[in-house]
């Protein structure tokens, strides 16, 4: 078996595989407006990129003094997001090519996302990625979201992979930190280019500082299959 086939590649979904942040922003804006919060803009939304939906809503509920339970807010946002996601979700072209390349080489892959299980399944189906990415773990299935390592460790456990043999692809500092805490290698593709200098990305083994516009499927593949140096 090749080095590549011994490696489990774990993809974050939102902002890494698909450009879902505009939909998440609009869903959040709509839900907040339902509870009397106006003026929630894109800049405010970017503070929560890479953070799970429940953790995001918990923080916003506290920040804006919303009385509704987090579960109520979560259900409302998931409904709004699913409506938007089914209308349109764009896969980053370089990522679709990369997934196809890994699949053709027999490299095992999975998805680990802060979104709900229903949402992940819907997005993968809507984009056609479900034909190549057949397994996934959601934030609902672990005790703590990113930057805790739980979701990546659970993804590895389910696929029978040792953390040292896993590579995570992430777009946000909390995800890169979670990969580091999990003892996994990381390819970082910052969704917000201004975050490229974040200390969490310094732990990534491969950083495409300009984000998706800099991403190279060939360079990422070559780095992933490179033998890990002995420690």
Q: Could you tell me the number of beta strands?
A: 6
Order of helices and strands: EHHHHHEHEHEHEEH
Helix proportion range = 40-55%
**What structural class do the secondary elements suggest?**
alpha/beta
The proportion of residues in beta strands is 5-15%
Low-confidence stretches: none
* Average pLDDT taken over every residue: 92
- The spatial strand order of the largest sheet comes to 3-2-1-4-5-6
Q: How is the biggest beta sheet arranged?
A: 6 strands, parallel
Gyration radius over CA: 17 Å
Number of continuous helical runs: 9
State the end-to-end distance.
22 Å
What's the shape? globular
What does this structure look like?
The chain is of the alpha/beta class. The chain is 43% helix and 10% strand. It has 9 helices and 6 strands. It has helices spanning 21-34, 42-46, 53-64, 70-87, 93-104, 117-127, 150-159, 173-181, 217-225; strands spanning 8-11, 109-113, 136-138, 166-170, 185-188, 206-207. The chain has a 6-stranded parallel β-sheet with strand order 3-2-1-4-5-6, with helices on both faces. Strand 2, helix 6 (117-127) and strand 3 (136-138) form a beta-alpha-beta unit. It is globular. 44% of the residues are buried.
Per-chain topology:
Blueprint: E1 8-11, H1 21-34, H2 42-46, H3 53-64, H4 70-87, H5 93-104, E2 109-113, H6 117-127, E3 136-138, H7 150-159, E4 166-170, H8 173-181, E5 185-188, E6 206-207, H9 217-225
Parallel strand pairs: 1-2, 1-4, 2-3, 4-5, 5-6
């Amino acid at each position: 078996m090749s080095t590549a086939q011994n490696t489990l590649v774990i993809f974050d979904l939102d902002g890494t595989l698909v450009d879902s942040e505009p939909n998440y922003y609009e869903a959040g804006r709509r839900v907040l407006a339902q509870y009397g919060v106006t003026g929630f803009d894109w800049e405010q939304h970017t503070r929560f990129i890479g953070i799970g939906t429940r953790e995001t809503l918990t923080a916003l509920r506290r920040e804006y003094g919303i009385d509704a339970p987090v579960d109520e807010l979560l259900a409302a946002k998931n409904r709004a997001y699913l409506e938007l996601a089914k209308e349109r979700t764009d896969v980053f072209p370089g990522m679709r090519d990369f997934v196809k390349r890994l699949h053709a080489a027999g490299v095992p892959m999975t998805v680990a996302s802060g979104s709900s299980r229903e949402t992940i399944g819907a997005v993968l189906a809507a984009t056609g990625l479900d034909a190549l990415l057949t397994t996934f773990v959601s934030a609902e299935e672990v005790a703590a979201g990113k930057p805790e390592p739980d979701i990546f460790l659970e993804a590895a456990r389910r696929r029978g992979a040792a953390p040292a043999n896993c590579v995570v692809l992430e777009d946000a500092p909390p995800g890169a930190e979670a990969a580091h805490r999990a003892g996994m290698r990381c390819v970082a593709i910052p969704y917000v280019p201004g975050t490229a200098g974040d200390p969490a990305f310094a732990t990534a083994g491969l950083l495409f500082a300009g984000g998706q516009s800099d991403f190279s499927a060939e360079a990422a593949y070559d780095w992933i299959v490179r033998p890990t140096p002995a420690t």
